[in-house]
Specification:
alpha/beta, Rossmann fold
Length: 282
């Protein structure tokens, strides 16, 4: 039995000891089993490199962070937008840290710092298209163009949700303290996490994050995390509660990695979380 199990494992299958049945292993699983410690460490298990975007159109400057590992196959791609008046610099730490958990990540400047969410949605799409189609060969050799995600802060968070609404083939979206007006997200089909800040007086959760969450259909899979005592600038910091949930969301839905469900469902709780709502992964 042991030798049969080993043979199946080598062939890309795993044996369920309880039933003796074979299950296809997840081809997108990357890295070691996650723990709270690994998700809140300053960096994940993958060493990374970076390269500046060049020859692009549809967004401002961009920086791509990618794992140096070539032994585990390709990686999903995530584009990250800053908020109103903010340069790319403020989100680059998020991009680098996310890449260290096994993603190719592009952080962008918007065309102007005044761009509204609908413009940032288009810029996020342009950034993903650039990485897939025109990025340096060292990057393109590491990506899986079918597994794409979007992320952003403030108006970039609003743009993230608009990008998810307008591109239903994306695998995941994480909106950090999103700000948007005159937008409706009732047709979103992409698994979406919204992270609000309890003391946000710029994109107050009652006017932005909470109604956005309620608009997204449950069938899409969604979560709303509200970080206790935090303000609007939570999204450009290194808050571990926010980052742990964001990584778990991308790993679960971009990588289909069910090892991360423990950080999503049942709902997490604790002194750093003032509210959490979600649909459990189906």
């Amino acid at each position: 039995m042991a030798s049969a199990a080993a043979a199946l494992a080598i062939g890309g299958l795993a044996v369920n000891p309880a039933t003796g049945g074979a299950q296809v292993a997840n081809p997108y699983q990357r890295g070691p089993a996650p723990t709270t410690a690994s998700l809140t460490a300053p960096a994940g298990p993958f060493a990374t490199q970076s390269v500046a975007a060049s020859g692009f159109s549809g967004f401002g400057n961009g920086t791509i962070y990618y794992p140096t590992d070539t032994s585990q196959g390709t990686f999903g791609v995530v584009a990250v937008s800053p908020g109103f008046l903010s340069p790319q610099f403020v989100i680059q730490g998020i991009g680098q840290r996310l890449a260290s958990h096994g993603f190719v990540v592009i952080t962008i400047d918007t065309i102007t710092i005044f761009d509204f969410p609908f413009q940032r949605a288009a810029e996020l799409k342009a950034a993903l298209d650039y990485v897939v189609q025109s990025s340096p060969a060292a990057v393109r050799s590491r990506i899986d163009s079918t597994r794409l995600g979007v992320m952003g802060h403030s108006m970039g968070g609003g743009g993230t949700l608009e990008a998810a609404r307008d591109n239903p083939t994306y695998q995941a979206a994480v909106a950090l303290q999103p700000w948007d007006i005159f937008a409706n997200f009732s047709t979103v089909k992409v698994p979406s996490m919204i992270i609000g800040a309890q003391n946000d007086f710029i994109a107050g959760v009652s006017a932005h994050s909470e109604p956005f969450y309620e608009q997204i259909p449950a069938a899409a899979e969604k979560a709303y995390l509200e970080v206790a005592g935090a303000d609007h600038f939570l999204g450009v910091g290194a808050d571990n509660t926010q980052f742990k949930s964001a990584v778990a969301w991308f790993k679960r839905y971009v990588d289909n990695d069910t090892r991360y469900e423990q950080f999503i469902c049942p709902p997490p709780s604790g002194p750093t979380i003032s509210e959490y709502r979600n649909t459990c992964p189906g």
